[in-house]
Amino acid sequence: MEFRHLGSSGLVVSEISYGNWITHGSQVEEESAVACVHAALDEGVTTFDTADVYAGGRAEEVLGRALKGQRRDGLEIFSKVFWPTGESRNDRGLSRKHIVRGVEDSLRRLGTDYLDLYQAHRFDHGTPLEETLRAFDDLVRQGKVLYIGVSEWRAEEIERALAIADALGLQRPVSNQPQYNMLWRVIESEVVPASERGGLGQIVWSPIAQGVLTGKYPPGQAPPAGSRGTDEKSGARFIKRFLDDQELLTRVQGLSGLAAEAGLTQAQLAVAWVLQNPNVSSAIVGASRPEQVRDNVQAAGVRLDAGLLARIDELLGDSVQRDPALTQSPEAQR
Q1: CB 220 within 8 A of CB 246
Q2: Of 58, 95, 175, 215, which residue has the fewest beta carbons closer than 10 angstroms?
Q3: Domain that holds residue 117
Q4: pLDDT tens for each residue of 183-200
């Protein structure tokens, strides 16, 4: 495993993070979920990402049980707050009330007394940004949170947060968690430059485009049984735009030859590709089977030459989404 600093902060994270969106508490049984976490640990992964909204809180609980007994100081545990976690009007958003309640609930479910990184899961247009940043700052001062980050924020939102934090002497965000992969590159034109100027690193999710970049969805064929393309609970609605594009699926099949030349599987190539971006601190992978974890982590430390990167761009062509207006991806409630 290789390691990188999270943005310009002093926190070091594993190049590959393990995330449990979709899988834990919903798609796979707990025994399988725990096996995947232990496989990640065995492969040197130290960074684990979850959120209070995943599986209605069950994902945090499963992750907490899976990590029980591990040396806490050797792990980086991340969670998020924003999406509704109850029926009350205050059970959502980035108000002080929801953030304070949210972190207490996440700590309880995870079985830990602090989070290494607490992330604003989306930007809250209904709460003053100063209120949100002050609440996060208080959690840092209390020792319940060590660093703060954001997820799927636009460049202008990141810049506003940094300006307010600097003006008021508050904790600055050190990271952003966007979707990013060979097919979805909308962060490159605005979010990445803003993050580089502000010292934020990207913790990217969906580096293999929910499995599309593995090549297991050939054009003109039904999705394989048991895959995310067939199970609405496990992500079919999140990759529909890819599966409906037959030209894109045809181009993705062409990645198999490029991956073979590099001595990689298609999944490893996809994960390694996002890690070539110097603003990426870590790539989040998920899994329903331990062997998927072991395969994906082999992308750590891989360096792709410029010629191969250019051939990937040429192959994918106009199938790549680059429009910065789509920074906040359609997977609204991820």
Answers
A1: yes
A2: 58
A3: 3-206+274-301
A4: 999 999 999 999 999 999
